[in-house]
Amino acid sequence: MTPLLIFDIETKASDHEVGEMGLLMRRQQTGGSEFLPHYLQRVVTISCVLRTEKTFKVWSLSHPEATEAEMLQRFFDGIEKYTPQIVSWNGGGFDLPVLHYRSLLHGVTAPRYWDWGDDDRDFKYNNYLNRYHTRHLDLMDVLAGFQARANAPLDALAKLLGFPGKLGMDGGAVWDAFQRGEHDAIRDYCETDVVNTYLVLLRFRKMRGELTTEQYDAEINLVRASLEEIGADHWFEFLEAWPS
């Protein structure tokens, strides 16, 4: 079984770009876009699900326990170690470009991730960087048929499929939560997002015929049991919102 690494990030404005942000705020006030450019985002946490043949694990590389540089390096070290298929929701449009810019800033090394096939022939035809390869599966992009106008929000689609969706926070609330020092709340929110993504992935794999109904049910039961075993409050809330 190829390891699966599902990931999601939460960000805030980069501290050292306050002057640039002032200009952006001015553009917003005069009718410009409200979206802060990728290169001005700072990574607050990276949450992951790792599924191997024997393991289901949910965890976060969280600020303030680690610096941004340490979080980024640990994330790419995981790719270096496992060469997993990585899975995201809008990772191609947001998460990965942010990780690229911040890793460039911090001098992070990630040779496996950046391999276009120069050192491994398999990566020439299936690498992390090509939008239409599956070594990185941007689930939102694929389900929309690579048509931006058909994109669906993770929260809405997860709830449509009977999964919990977002609980208590959304991406727009991260900045204020960070300012209040609510780092655990941001981490918990990001972790529930990444598990929602994994659950949607399971339904997608069943649709593709990668999982039988029995295998899908077993995987769902594994997720439930694993979250119960963790025993954290946000997982109890998640399970309560996810009826059997």
What features would you describe in this structure?
The protein has 244 residues and is an alpha/beta fold. It has a single domain (4-240), classed as Nucleotidyltransferase, domain 5 (2-Layer Sandwich), CATH 3.30.420. Helix content is 48%, strand content 14%. The chain contains 10 helices and 5 strands, in the order E-H-E-E-H-E-H-H-E-H-H-H-H-H-H. It has helices at 18-29, 68-82, 91-106, 121-125, 139-143, 154-160, 174-179, 183-208, 213-230, 233-240; strands spanning 4-13, 41-51, 56-62, 85-88, 136-138. Strands 3-2-1-4-5 form a 5-stranded mixed sheet, with helices on both faces. A hairpin with a 4-residue loop joins strand 2 and strand 3 (56-62).
